[in-house]
Amino acid sequence: MASPTIESILHExxxxxxxxxxxxxxxxxxxxxxxxxxxxxxxDPAAFWAELAQQELHWFQPWHxxxxxxxxxxxxxxxxxxxxxxxxLDRHLNTWRRNKAALIWEGEPGDSRTLTxxxxxxxxxxxxxxxxxxxxxxxxxVGIYMPMVPEAAIAMLACARIGAAHTVxxxxxSAEALKDxxxxxxxxxxxxxxxxxxxxxxxxxxxxxxxxxxxxVPSVSGVLVVQRTKSxxxxxxxxxxxxxxxxxxxxxxxxxxxxxxxxxxFILYTSGTTGKPKGVVHTTxxxxxxxxMTFKWAFDIKDNDVYWCTxxxxxxxxxxxxxxxxxxxxxxTVMYEGVPxxxxxxxxxxxxxxxxxxxxxxxxTAIRAFIKMGDELPKARDLxxxxxxxxxxxxxxxxxxxxYHQVVGGERCPIIDTWWQTETGGFMITPLPGATPTxxxxxxxxxxxxxxxxxxxxxxxxxxxxxxxxxxxxxxxSMMRTVYGDDARYRRTYWxxxxxxxxxxxxxxxxxxxxxxxxxxxxxxxxxxxINVSGHRLGTMEVESALVSHPAVAEAxxxxxxxxxxxxxxxxxxILEGQYSASDELKQELKQHVVKEIGAIARPGEIKFADALxxxxxxxxxxxxxxxxxxxxxxxxxxxTMEDQSVLDQLRRG
Length: 654
Ligand code: WT7
Description:
CATH topology of the largest domain: Rossmann fold
Number of helices: 21
Number of strands: 29
Bound molecules: 5'-O-[(S)-butoxy(hydroxy)phosphoryl]adenosine
CATH class of the largest domain: Alpha Beta
Shape: globular
Helix content: 25-40%
Distance between the termini: 29 Å
CATH superfamily of the largest domain: ANL, N-terminal domain
Structural class: alpha/beta
């Protein structure tokens, strides 16, 4: 099973037409219709989005300006008043959907719970009142550090309801990482659980919160704790409260706050080129519209669908396509606490069979792991309810695509390979299942209203088949608005790599891509210092800073190494302080140290001790060579700019 290679991608030319059933009932029914729509949208994106915003969402008050674009700062639906929790809940209550399942939840130990729209609305209103009671006001930030339980979605919607911004921190992050993020966002309250179940173990979430707060998070005045694992936790008098205690007495009456379309909805931290994670800022109106439309058209949602996305709510995929997109559409969304684990490697197929899942959305890394486990597991379950499949997180290698198509999809389900990012809020390049013929390994073409291209460093489009930088040429409703508290970093990271062309500013995604002669996009992966481990994004600098914070480490350099299942794995070169000597114990200790600083997702797969690193004469580490060394390849390219040629020999030998 190979990871996507340029070779396999370049030679891929199979074409899968949309099945007839889709072409007949989808919102966009043919390639011609897609092209016509995309052209109309590109000619006047503001008018295109305004029409949809009017048709699809509830507004307390209409906007006066669709788009105010002061590059690189965009405002959408300026003057409009909206509440995304209202759009996800209240407006379904006076329809037959009132008693439709909004959220179907399955816990790792096999417990489960279903909440109808009416029940979810009630829980959210109560929680909104609980938060108000804890002093949370419109404009405040609330940290959410939770397992995959319904309360995580309830907490997000409750924040949105009262106009407090949430910042969800993935439950796999360490106390240290949690502390940094809570401080950056200046969160007032943290919502957590006593623990969460993950791979048959209990993850002590509350203990991590305690540790983070002991480390110093002066903004936090209250902690709300969901009882999930019934583990022993210590509750700090006056600061900590049980969710169920406060929820039990809270009023279920809480009208949704009328928010400005541009009010902060959430901050979500993601990795970039420096050691400090970026707080990606998303606002209300544009995000609501864009996640609504992409969910509706790309997932071809119908009222009898049971939709399941396997992501965690700690990532943007969970925000946009477990919670907001599906609920805004009145869909049934499945939430699963577990992940494939030795005690139940086929758990995903169990969930599909149990709930009759019709639309399934997962990551290529999961698919590759399933391939390794063999076809018996999916074949042992009835997957005939499935009608549409999706992938996200990294390029999918054509081999994995074909397996997904044949073994999971029974050759009848289209696959939407959705390219997007934390920063884009929603799908940017994706097939529309009733219209777009798919090619294994290609995310195909931009969503209507998105103007994307592949360009060189001067912003000039590269010829078909040639590699370049993936850019977006026109603002879109759910684009990030800035880096929280750091407009300069926002400008520098996304808008200055490629110079404006004829006054047009280009959004630089950080990915390399090529477009083929049919206009299909083939995303090749990151071109910056970001590595993608099992679809999780990590900054090389972030891992390096974690390593050098250990007393034994003098210097560290981290690169990605190809991995059959994870896509990429972390490979770290470490130079030790003089008084320490290399040993396997120290390797283990350093790996554990990174887990403590960041979380288990950042644990290096391999650490190599070195005497020196390859550097240019000006002292810059030549990562290209390290990548070659890590993957056991020959050193590619000119080594003459190196300060000390013998360094490479030593690394090769060592
Ligand atoms: C990066 C964004 C979007 C939610 C999950 C990840 C890579 C994502 C694809 C895809 C090729 C993909 C890119 C992107 N990526 N989807 N379908 N094909 N690459 O969000 O953590 O913000 O990471 O993931 O490199 O830049 P994220």
